[in-house]
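Field: sequence (string)
Field: structure_tokens (string)

Example rows 1 and 2, in order.
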Amino acid sequence: MPTYFETVARPVIAADFDYFRLPREKWELLLVRLRQMGVNALSLSLPWGFHEGEPGAVDLTGASDSRRDVVGLLRLSAALDFVCLLKPGPYLEAGVLGQGLPLWLLRQTDDLEAALPQAVTGWFRALSGALKGQQWPAGPIIALEIKAESGQPQPLSPQLSEVKWPIWLRKHYDGIEALNAAYGTAYRTVNEVKFPENWATAATPVEKDAALFLEAVQNETQSSYRQILLNHGWQVPIYTSTAESAPPWQNFTLTQPADLTALSQAPETASLNLRQPIEADPDPADVGRGPVWAANAPLRADGSPRPTFWQVRQKLWRQTLPELRLEGQTLLAPFSGGMVMTRSSDAALKTDMPPAAKAKAYRLGFTGELSDDETLKLGRGKVSGLYQAETAAGPTDLLLILDNPSTALTDFPLNYLRWLLAAQAQTLARAAELAAALGESLSSAQAEPEQAAVSPRRSSSATLERARQGLSEADAALRKAMASIGALESGFATMLSKEPTQSPVTPPAIIPTIFEGEAKDVLLEVGAACAKIAPVLHGATVTLQRTLAAPSGFTVEQYRQDYATALAAARAAREPLLEVIALLRLEIAAERLPLLAWRVHQQVQELAESLRWGVLRG
């Protein structure tokens, strides 16, 4: 079957999307920003150690932390028309703790090379089971890239120097006499040939053999890992980081001025891989080696653009829009039915355009708000007036000139506005699901523990009493952890991470039935608020999805109506959520709720923040 690279004519412009560094509630916003910059593919590094915190406990669905939801990320990528290159390691670069390897694996073995094959097999098996169903053409995954070597100098393991090295020498030389002739030595057996301590220069015969040996080991390991993935059902291309057959990516690090200059000079048909496009500040302590990642990236951590964003966009748009032209610093993209204009700074415009009696100008803000632009004059085949790079409503994304606003959008503007709506629809759908789940789990109809459902009333009471006692003990343990660590979040995370399990860690369930009095009433109030907003969010989702699915596209007015619908739903839902968050904080601080109720607070806050970043966009 032809690969994606052989089938699709458009150039692949990939950007790193380090989802594990970014709060889950910002994924939709930041993916939209990459779309606005001109990216059409994502390079996704999967830190093995981040997803397998304990041996055999692999989380790729967000069960233990929403940042681990790779399955959801791929669905989101498909909705925004991204294709994806997956990098499952086992080694990773990108400033990740342990170079991507699980810290438990590094702690439990003195011979990493001997322990890796079995551990990697388990990781690749779990990854394949969860993700292989999203391969192209059914899904967004177009290729895998494995990295079998660390890329950093490290002591040679006994598995290599004492086991594989003598075996390689026996295969490489036809007897000990041939080896001695090549080395000018008098060894009796190959077991006497010690692996050289310093072979980097490959100046002597044994050092040259050491370099050849390590290259052979690397190739063998890469071939073995590739075969594991093939055996588990992968059919897309599987590349290694050093393979000559890999697509001819040109790599550019967007935080390096020299790379930004080189990017502007790259061939128009080149496949690009853009590194460090998004700043992570702070870089989460559970993955990053430093406190900040990709400082000065084109996109700040809150999704706002730096000046380099426009520099990169100019290159990417020119590469993906054949009709685009550059007048000074203004990008002009004509299409059937109008023209798009964008630049990074204020400027007086005077541009030719085809005459149209009903032509109208719109300003698209960076948030996605589309408003009439009354400052531009359209007439006599000219567009004239002031391009305002920023107004009181925020930065300008682009100007949209339409010959006839009442007709459906086509070409680039249709796709561009569709991506903006799709991101909001995805956020609303997820928020509706989270709100409904919280509303159900914190409802007055919440069933008692399973044991109580099949036991006499006396057992039910006893079960509830045990649950309350367990909650009290857990709360006491958390307070102790908090006192020693000095932060509630750290104490909570520490307690959860130490829970013994062979499956992804699931935080303790907090339901009203195990509470009494005022504490129970508070949780029921939280549940009622979430249950009330779920239909509002779902209704807005349906409205946006109906527009997105329309085969004939949509008009500017339909876009504006749906954008307003999304904002209204997000605001109507977020206001009661903020009140609930304030209530929970007050009750927890007053010790009327156990500290474990902080878990409910976190879920509600993530829901509110998702609406803030994914729909309201800041």
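Row 2 begins here:
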Amino acid sequence: MADVMTTSVSHYRRPDTFAISLRRLLPGASFVGCADVTVVDATEKSYDCQPGSLFAVVPGSNVDGSRFVGDALQRGASALLVSRPIAGATVPQCVVRNVRRAYAELCSALVGQPFRRLGMIGVTGTNGKTTTTWLIRSILQAAAKKTGLLGTVEYHDGDTSSNSALTTPDSRSLNRWLARMISCRATHAALEVSSHALDQDRVAGIQFDAGVLTNITPDHLDYHRHFESYISTKARIMSLLKASGRMVLNADDRPSAELISRVPTDKMCVTYGIDAPADVTAKIVQEKTDGSRFVLRMRGEEIEVFTSLMGRHNISNCLAAAAAVAQFNLPLEKIAEGIEHLTEVPGRLQRIEMGQPFEVFVDYAHTEDALSRILSALKPLTAGRLICVFGAGGDRDKSKRPLMGRAAAKFADLAVITSDNPRTESPQSIIDQILPGFAESSCQTHIEIDREQAISVALKQAVAGDCVVIAGKGHETEQILGTTRNPFDDREIVRTCLAPLYSPVGTSAANSD
């Protein structure tokens, strides 16, 4: 009679979780060893299993979850979520076609589907995700909307924050953070949604009031293999919109603009752009190293806005944020106020001021497009030389390395090529793959494998009127050498190098992503 029994996984229950029937939640599922499973706790990590937990056997990119079933059972797992029955397992099994998606939906259900009680905005794109989500939060806060945020720099529930581990958390953590936002009386949430998270269905259990696609340029091709696959993965955010949701696309970015035809016909599509015709536009009034002034035009209205976030790409990010929050019918004045209130985003063209007679910016740019954007923005505003310190990450997409070299060669007068996070690759080998990008370039190059020394070299080279950009790591506070994480913060290294020579006068920041 085991095949008609209902199993309750209820020995362990968090006080903020619900009891979920898998048959009701996943009507297409089949069951081995029972007719249904009632779940109050689920995890995809065997070491998190406790007596009564359900263990989701998720297929991994490198290691399949089936390898950890024994460990999960030993720790007390009382049921399995699988894509095919596991022979010899002594606990009930729920069999589904897509374990990742089912697990994400279960994680959301276990905490009461908090996305339904939040105004949700999800932002994806190669560059600009962090800046745009911070702008969205700032605008919503200006309109007295308590807002949580999950992204590359931090996870914030509306009251307190924690350093982030991933741009988009795993499904369990993601939904628990959303539930925390509800507990903190937040009404809205801004989420960075990475291509990995979309491909791995981490966000499958939630829906957005607005989805934003900032731009698409080649990145993560070591994972996605082909650019078209990468584009299709980014476009998946369109399938996660609520019934009345809107999709926001960058009309200035051709791959993004070409996705307009893919927006579901029952969803609103809103475009933004500086150069191309769009629903939300900007007329640039002034660009300086301490910010930009532009006229924001949307919904038949216009208003002049100042942003401390320097560069055209950041004006574009402001437009993306404005187009997204318009879903909540905010007045234009509050949108402008929120943009103006955001003065910095950690590690995004963050200005370091120590009294030196030249500019120093630290930025997260680690793709050809991002590096081109920040350098092209700074070049016409720099009276002297533009000096760029950068490298490329190890054990990641190798195809972008010479392209990053080409971006630096096009705009910089001096490029100091160094290590980023080399991980298990030879730093010199990575640098050798960057150097072809400088072929036939007049840009002066200097190679220094040690990143701290490279930063010191660049700062010692700088004179009055120059601008030094230290790119690649931005807000990061560690450098990964081999498999070891060592404390390392570009911003602190700059301050340490400049402190003996100049008196600090405070810090401010502009922004890029």
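free_text_note (row 2): The first helix runs from residue 22 to 25.
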